[in-house]
Amino acid sequence: MLELLITYPVAIAALSLLITNYQMRSWLLPLSAAPHLGISILLVCDYFPSYGNWIGLDALSKLVLITTSILFLGCAIYAVGYLDIRRDRGNKVMVPCLLIFLSAMTLAIVARHLGLMWFAVEATTIASAPLIYFNYNRLSIEATWKYLLICSVGIALAMLGIMFIAYSALGVADPISLHLDALLQTAPQMSRPWLHAGFIFLLVGFGTKMGLAPLHTWKPDAYGEAPGLVGALLAGGLTSVAFLAILRGLQLMTAAGDGDMARQALLGMGMLSLLIAAIFMVRQPDIKRLLAYSSVEHMGLLAIGVSMGGIATFGAMLHLINNALTKGGLFLTAGNIQRSFGSKSLNEVRGAIVALPISGTLFLMGFLAITGSPPFGPFISEFTILRGIFASDKMIIGALVLLFLAVVFIGMGATVLSATQGEPGDQPAQFFDRPLLYISPLCFMVIVLIIGVYIPEPLQAALHRAAALLEVQP
Amino acid sequence: MMELTNPILLTVILINYFTLGSARLGACIRVVALQGALLALLPLATHGVTGHSLILAGGTLALKGILIPWLLLRAIREVRIRREVEPLVGYVPTLILGALTTAGSFIFADFLPLLEQHNTGLHVPTALATMLAGFILLITRRKAITQVLGYLMLENGIFIFGVLLSESMPLLVEAGVLLDLLVAVFVMGIVLNRINREFSTINTERLSALKE
Predict the structure, then answer these.
(1) What angle (nearest 5°) sits at the alpha carbon of residue A292, between those of residues A290 and A295?
(2) Each residue of A117-144: pLDDT tens digit?
(3) Option in B158, B168, B177 nearest A160 (CB)
């Protein structure tokens, strides 16, 4: 079934090139996203065997797979409405690229061979470049070029990291293989210097893709210029996939008994991400760039969460889901707001709640959720991460994280409130709420709210299993 | 075939210098194509003629030696750019920088805990030197096309290191990696063309509207 999950989006992408009817082509997206989610749920619930040498699901990838699949379905439904009002730009590129992007993300999630995973992650870079360039103007081309070049170079370094890891196994295992399971078994005997170097390059490479500071420079540009739905997929889906790739490296280091060093590196980058995000979010006049820096912040939180271990790792796993869905909802509604005001800058955007009652309210709710206000899910996950930090007696780090989160709350709040509150200017509104364009963010926010109030038992068990994979095996 | 590796790797290093010191884009693309073609020989020279290394060599030659350079040459023909004028850092300083990093790579490789059979070969220092030369090109040049060349040289450097462990990479994955590279360069070529159309230049310093 896993193979099917990867191949059929590509087949539908090819099919989309043959279809001439505009609306029908757009509807291919939700029509292929829905079975993707269906099969993913069946796979995650172990209705089909899903463990192989090349591709397979473990507790970590199950979590990422289901999150990405839900996010993609939401974005696909939004895309139908979005592409309908963007007939000027057409959907001949968007639809196949989104489907290939879905396929590449799925492959990257389920890959259990480091080389295969690398191939899939690089494929996501290439498939998403045309998506960022959707608007065909000077700014979007600049963003695309930066994204393409920085991420390609970053991913190339990740390849070097994978080769270093292979080199560290040279002489231990014969023949050396890059299958994750084989590597995890031989990890204790691997050559340490090469393994360490390999992990660092892996972290730098996939960290670029994930947008950890100081490798995040492409992020505000790409997220800012891409259409809202692409921003949602990148910030919610792709970052989670890149994070999973880094976690594979962490698993290896832990298996080799050097998890502490890996955790320190993650902690350093996580703290730096929080700091940079906090600095750039204060007085940020552009709502989409604001969201991009918020994404940097939450990547930092994820890194800090897994670096602490224990309960904080559990928090990070939960935060991965929360961040993906909340950020997805935020980007989709930000796209609606941008459409209505013809701008994403605070100079023009005022009183979004009056102009767009549903999207504006959802945007405000998304802001409250992502900054960790109760009763939304991110509150629980951020609180758990903080509890983990204080439980491991790292008072200074805990205090700093709290400080940065407070700065982010104030900075983001200032921008979001002045965008949503007040009266809109007197220019005629160009766009009103449409069901197709607010149903997905609404669903995302409902899920995030449910997680905030009550985490179902199966999810809790799945999170514990995923966190356990990152702990030291006795 | 073993005695061939060192001449190949030395030529690869000389090509690094050429790209660092030359202003003519067409010539740069052609020598990077030559570098790719030489790299195609490397698996054969290192591991002898086996099925795996033959296929790898063929794929590398086709992509790095022929297809990708052809794409790039077509791209510069379309945008009618021949020379890299006013690099951010002059040619002589970049050459000196290149020489320094190459020397550094050789010294650094001596300190690396390499396996015995790799201690004497030139693979590791050449890989490092080529990667660093690619980085220098990426950083010091303004033209988008030269940055693509820098990316290709970076990939070439990684490839040289990968040859040491080519048995660990199944052919399927190798093919995938090469395919990714090809499509990436193809997409970069398209973007390049768009940059030229929008800005009437492919100088990347014009791409500076997005900042805080």
Answers:
(1) 115
(2) 999 999 999 999 999 999 988 899 999 9
(3) B158
Q: How confident is the model at residue A429 (pLDDT cuts 50, 70, 90)?
A: low
Confidence of residue B2 (pLDDT cuts 50, 70, 90): low
CB contact at 8 A, A95 and A227: no
The answer to whether A122 faces chain B, any CB pair under 8 Å, is: yes
Name chain A contacts of B75, Cβ cutoff 8 Å: none
Note whether residue A420 is domain-resident.
yes
- pLDDT of B150 > 70? The answer is yes
ipTM over the 0.85 cut-off: yes
CB A97 within 8 A of CB A83: no
pLDDT > 70? residue A47: yes
Rounded Cα distance, A464 and A318, in Å: 10
Considering only CA atoms, which of A141, A33, A123 is closest in space to residue A80? A33
CA atoms within 13 A on the CB side of B164: 28
pTM score, two decimals?
A: 0.95
Q: Is residue A305 a part of any domain in this protein?
A: yes
**Residue-number span of the structural domain to which A365 is assigned:** 269-474
The pLDDT tens digits of the residues spanning A296-311 come to 999 999 999 999 988 9
Residue tagged 């030529």 (tokens): B11
Mutant choice from A126, A177, A180, A221 vs B, greatest count of B C-beta within 10 A: A126
* Domains: count for chain A: 1
